[in-house]
Amino acid sequence: MTNERPPHLPPEKARAGRISGRVVTVLVAGFVLVVLLLGGAWLYWSGTTPK
Question: Which chain regions cross the lipid bilayer (predicted)?
Fold first, then answer.
């Protein structure tokens, strides 16, 4: 008789090394927002805003 079930791991070890899709989405969205805000601030203070 073979055991088809994976070994039982505690939640801390089962999640070790994994990042959920929601966390990745928040990190990417935050990074994009920071880049846009810094780019806009740079354009505003450099005086080269498009007209």
Answer: 23-45
How many whole angstroms separate alpha carbon 30 and alpha carbon 50? 25
Tens-digit pLDDT profile for residues 15-41: 667 778 899 999 999 999 999 999 999
Higher pLDDT, 29 or 47: 29
Q: How far is CA 36 from the centre of its chain?
A: 16
Cα distances (Å, whole numbers) of residue 11 to 8, 14, 24, 42? 9, 5, 20, 45
Reading the block at residue 16, the tokens are: 């070790």
User: What is the rounded distance in angstroms from the CA atom of residue 43 to the CA atom of residue 38?
Assistant: 9
